[in-house]
Amino acid sequence: MKKITYLLCFALLSYVVYAQTPGVPMYSNPNQYIEYIPGNLPIIIAVPHGGILQSGETIGGVFYPDDDSNLPDRTCGNNDRDVNTDVLIRRIQDELYAQTGGYAHIIINNLHRSKMDPNGMPSAGSCGNSHAASYWSDFHYFINDASASVEANWGKGLYIDLHGHDHSVPRIEIGYNITASELNTSDLNSASIIDKSTINNLINNNINGLSYEELVRGNNSLGQLFQNAPGTYYNSIDPSGPETSYPECGVSSGYRAVPSNSNYGNNACDDTMPLAHSYDDGDDYNNRRHGSGDGAGGSLSIGGGGNIDGISIQVNSRLRDLGSPYDAMPNTLNPFAIDYANVILEYLSIHYDNFSEFDYDAASYDITDVDPTPSLTNGISGGIYLSTPAGLVIDQDTGVIDTSASAVGNYIVTYSVGPTSAMSSPNRFYNTSRNIEITNDALSVSEEEFITVKLYPNPTTGFLNFESTIQLSEVKVHSILGQRVKTIAINNEQSSIDLSGLRTGSYLVTFYTDEQSLGSKLIVKN
Length: 526
Prior knowledge:
Layout: H1 2-18, E1 26-27, E2 34-37, E3 43-47, E4 57-59, E5 62-64, H2 85-100, E6 105-109, H3 122-126, H4 130-154, E7 157-165, E8 172-175, H5 180-185, H6 191-196, H7 200-205, H8 212-217, H9 222-228, E9 257-258, H10 285-290, E10 308-316, H11 333-351, E11 364-366, E12 384-388, E13 409-417, E14 430-439, H12 441-446, E15 453-456, E16 463-479, E17 484-498, E18 505-512, E19 517-525
Parallel strand pairs: 3-6, 3-7, 7-10, 8-9, 11-14
Antiparallel strand pairs: 1-2, 2-6, 4-5, 8-10, 12-13, 13-14, 15-16, 16-17, 16-18, 18-19
């Protein structure tokens, strides 16, 4: 009977998980202790220690019915919660949506850590309590489902285990399952360190071919991207605070993070390595289970493998402050969440984003050629093909170009995948573009002279001059997104176009005779 009940519960959970909608929270049980917000980006973020819910309480008008006999306080392990990480992740999600129109996969343990700790083996996380153990399983089942979704839709992705810390050196601690000793003394490119790293898949497959050393503390490492972020440096926020004995290292912007490429001086100002200071190295259950390493180097070794990389990010308390009107402390959490989200997007763009790579066999096709079909060189299927300016007849689903129906000219074909935001519309967030020219060899043969159009100056700050070998009837100017911004009647072989009223950027200028388009040229307006 017990086995049947378990199978029914598992089947119900599986049904709920697969009936998911990006951005809409779902729960494994009515008490809402474990929350999963499905996503449609290649990003998974879990928050194991931010929960505040205790059993038998009414919070926000909702009664949580478990009593202490069902879910007593844990008598083993650490019961301290990572204050405001549950708020931080929701603010990060808001910014991810604002930038991309999509959602990361978010898994939150809403239970207080004193009731259940999902960042450890189930025996330690539940202290032997069967109710706590079931919630522990729910937390990891949701991460498993998120990982399966990312693998199926993107082929690879990033898992982040989000934590908080109160160490004396107030910087972000980024863990890849490399010990402080190894960061202080070792060649990070050694095989033994690489094999156990929770970003093992990225080491072998990052799109720029960077070494592990470069990925961990190079110019494009995650730590250095935090250092380069535009946010106001948090150490200057409260000069009268309890940590004023810590030297601020002369930094005025960004967020100090270790490991990174930044060294502001000796000891506590060296962010390339922890030295003797407290540092969380990411050698914990969640990061090893759901990252791509082999799990070596810890007593609970399990090894995630696969194509989802894992990084533990410990955020210092200065960046998790919601502010208070009573002591004039500012809210640092909200602005940091905005920078955090953009750093993660930049990290994926640099190291992962070949999601939309495609190409055609040639860059130029005559109207009499066989219709060309693009190939996805690295990109994933299911995206859309769009072209600018108007005139190219292209199948949005397959990218096949109808050459005979297309107008002669130069075009930009873009293949894009993922969600669509206001900033990426009409393309989706991850996109790649190729230049395609459509020609008409018959026109060249039938004309007594070779047709050319010369444009100058290019770039231009205002007037654009042109000279043609035949009379032109009309000139049209389109933005890169295909919007027509100017149409000028010509009826001459040479003239000028006033572009001074256009915004700075790139434009496509298309020339017409009475019969047809003669092609397009890309110009830059400064």
